[in-house]
Amino acid sequence: MSSTDPQQSDPNAALDRLQALAANTSTVIWHTAPDGTVSQRNISWATFTGQREDEYVGFGWLDAVHPDDRPAVAEAWDAATRGTALFEFGYRLRRHDGTYRSMLAQGTPVMDAGTVREWVGVCVDVTAARQAEVALRESELRLRFLDRLGQATRALTDPVEVMAVTARTLGEYLGATRCAYADVEADSNRFTIRNDWTAEGVPSSAGVYSLDLFGPQATTNLRRGEHLVVRDVDRELGDEGGGRMFNAIGIKAIICAGLVKQGQLVAMMAVHQSVPRDWTPAEIALVAEVVDRSWAHVERVRSHAMLREQDTRKDEFLATLAHELRNPLAPIKYALALLRRSSDAARVANAQDVIDRQVTQMARLIDDLLDLSRINRGLIQLQLEDTPLDAVLRQAVEVARPAVEEARHDLQVQLPPPDVRVHADATRLVQMVGNLLGNAAKYTPDGGRIRLAAWRDGQEAVIEVADNGIGIPPDQQGKLFQMFSQLQHSAARAKGGLGIGLSLVRTLAQLHGGSVSVASEGLDEGSTFTVRLPLVEAMPAAGSAEAAAQQDTPAGLTRVLVVEDNRDGRESLVTLLELLGYAVDSAGDGGEAVEVARRFEPDVVLLDLGLPVQDGFAVCRALRADPRLRTARIIALTGWGTDADRQKTSEAGFDAHLTKPVEPDALQACIALTAVAPAPVG
């Protein structure tokens, strides 16, 4: 450009060049008076910060500095302007779009005859570099922490201990109030905090809870694998959104990271703070990574523990089997020796009775073993008939009477009316109740009380066997129905047995479309076993479920809607129902279920309770409110099967309650009721 170029002397052109430079670079050029105040236009500063000249003159430029950095910047700048040294300082500066950027400010005095005429300098945007430094530092800290956590848990072989050490290590690292690791049950609703880490003086949150406590939106998000992050409970959550629960346990901020595997919520890690806390993205990501890594370790430990337990149970079972088979052999051998040496009629008769009883006991042990083997291989076939329950219970009492009388127990029997009839295999039902009575006799000290009672409850028959025996500790009740289980506390007080009776009872109950449960307050508090079976009224009018289904489906296909969020369970059930001759549609969440139902207009809805978007209860209400769907038969098909759960679905408007896993015959029989069930009124 020549020296005569008019732009060289055109102040507007120079201004344009400066504004263009300021608008398109991340560097701010500034100048001030000797005392550090702005007394002239700073175009670059105004362009970057968006401040007007009347806003940044004097020390007004400090208003664009982040409030937390402002005092330090003012102090450093004041010290610099009192001397002539180069100035360098880092702080956060508000950009014209309202975001704060990390800036490195550098300034130098312009001297004139030994005095400062003005200060000039630049502010360079170093945000990206600072973020990279922070990310690197956080990455190093994260990796060091994860390595320390791995070292702390690597040698642990108890899943609960892995969870406890993980919670403590993470809670201390984050400086939290409480840290809890929870595993979630298969229904994706109930979760258990087995133990947790807490700061000094903070109560534990260990226990069993429902996800519903978090509120509907948070629950849905957790089931989808999205994290619940709350920085201020009172400001962000209402009572119905989970705020009531958190305030009840003194929590004002929380990270709850859910872990979803194959579409199923399996675990959660929760970090609690007793005061509001602005969780950083790095902290949130760390909690999520910890629950993922720890769960993999927990699963490995559980698999190894399960294998060890199976080996132990197998060895214990073989030893018990040898013991139980040898025990009857001894009195048989003694009785045979007596028969050879005595001709006394009374002694001979007694010896014969001994042999008969002991052979019968051996036969029952062998039958139980064979029955369990056949059931596990799917070879058992129930002979289902219309059976009066009172007659079955009388036979069961006779089966158990020798054991009851030998221990001098007081047995009270309350039979149901003759019209209480079940669709059952009478022989197997006698076996079930006989086993429960035999268990009560075995685990009740001599001279105890045993009560057998039965009654009608809606469309089910309830059979209850209660005793005042040795009871069952809460932590052992979950193992009670496992095959070959022998509870630790009962070993010295039982009177023999292979530990297969209750497993057989549970399996037979399920084959009948029913269930069995146990209740006990603990040691020496007795036990109550409850069997639930469908009544004949809950079965098809025809001779079998298959016949009833055949009558219902060919003439006009029964339309069945399957609502289940577990894809494998949903697809396999849909396939089975289609093979059985039904017209089937399906949905994977509550919202979709309502939409499909309005289009499909099903005769029967098989409805899971723990669903995303809307739970089963909300779906049931929505269907009942639709005039076109009010005649549909809504059946709860769920993993929840307690009396309270059944009462809850009944009150919510469900027509029936089936507990997973349900036998196909029982499911088909329940569906077939649509051919004879009256339409709801109103």
From TrEMBL:
Xref: InterPro entries: CheY-like_superfamily, GAF, GAF-like_dom_sf, HATPase_C_sf, HATPase_dom, His_kinase_dom, HisK_dim/P_dom, HisK_dim/P_sf
Keyword Disulfide bond: no
Domain (PAS) ranges: 14-84
Membrane-topology descriptor: Multi-pass membrane protein
Subcellular location(s) of the protein: Cell inner membrane
Chief place of localization: membrane
Superkingdom as given in the UniProt entry: Bacteria
Enzyme superclass (EC): transferase
GO molecular function, a single term: phosphorelay sensor kinase activity
Location of the PAC domain: 87-138
Record's GO cellular component terms: plasma membrane
Residues with PTM 4-aspartylphosphate: 608
Enzyme Commission number(s): 2.7.13.3
Domain Response regulatory: 559-675
Enzymatic reactions: ATP + protein L-histidine = ADP + protein N-phospho-L-histidine
Classification via SMART domains: GAF, HATPase_c, HisKA, PAC, PAS, REC
UniProt keyword terms in alphabetical order: Kinase, Membrane, Phosphoprotein, Transferase, Two-component regulatory system
CDD domains from the UniProt entry: HATPase_EvgS-ArcB-TorS-like (cd16922), HisKA (cd00082), PAS (cd00130), REC_2_DhkD-like (cd17580)
Histidine kinase domain boundaries: 320-537
Protein name: histidine kinase
